[in-house]
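Progress against Task 2.4 (sequence-to-structure conversion) is shown through the following example record, which the project officer requested during the mid-term review.
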Amino acid sequence: MNPHTDQHTDLNPDQHTGRHPASRAADIEAITRLVAAVEHSQQAKDPEAFLALFHPEAIWTTAHGKVLLGLKEIADFTRRVLPAANWDGRVSYEVAHVLFIRPDVAAVKVRQRYLAPGQESEGAPLYVLSRQGDDRWLLTACQNTAVAAD
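Structure tokens generated for the chain above:
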């Protein structure tokens, strides 16, 4: 038995969300896959793969503070800048923390790293995700934040 869990966690829903722990674990797996899909789309500089991860009414704020409202604005911006991105290294996106605000809404803190020979930069995005009726999680309200070097 895991000392950090209640012996009845498989039977009792979480008191805050009403979801069973097995459902919560599945949600965290799905959220981790979504963040991995963001990483893959960025590494491949593939705007269509990236855009498929968004809620139609999503809000996105870039690391430079540009606010994009709705999938059309996000798509126009992404199709213009992502394929033309001039970095040749590797990108890494890692789930750092998940806070379930409601059973179908999660705030996800991500550690974002751009790794290239002789240089590295980091971002600290916050993704608010919403779970759809088909159990897919989508990017809904996101703030990308550059981390300043010390």
